[in-house]
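User: I'm putting together notes for a lab meeting next week and I want to include a structural view of one of the chains we've been expressing. I don't have a solved structure, so I'd like a prediction I can at least talk through. The sequence is below, exactly as it appears in our construct file.
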Amino acid sequence: MATLIIVRLSTKRSLAEKTAFDAVLVVIIGSMLARGINGSGPFFATLGAGFVLVLGHRILGLTAFYSHGFGILVKGKPVVLAQNGRLQRKNMLWNHISEHDFEEDMRLEAKTKDLSQIKVARLERHGDISSITAE
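Assistant: Thanks for the context. Below is the predicted structure for the 135-residue chain, given as structure tokens.
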């Protein structure tokens, strides 16, 4: 019951694991609460720490909302992978996106296999590739 309350106090977005910032919270809370459940840690102290983590996550999220620079620090920023039909190979290499990965995403998400149809494609902060195609 306490875990459900902790989850409800957290933001819906954090449970969707939209960014590494959110995924880290989910992993830490799951790992920490397991200690309280299996008896390897004090039960009420573990629950208290869970509430503190969720509160800290909310505070960091609000700070990221009001501070663009801090938001980039904790959530990352989108990266251009292709522009005007040309691949940005340096950005692809830096983010471990192969040409085959990008082509797969073009077919599945942008519904095209023609790179010249891509105006801009970005690796978004949460890891998906978004594409804007020519009309």
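A couple of points you could mention at the meeting. Residues 2-74 form one domain. The two ends are 51 Å apart (CA to CA).

User: Perfect, that's what I needed.
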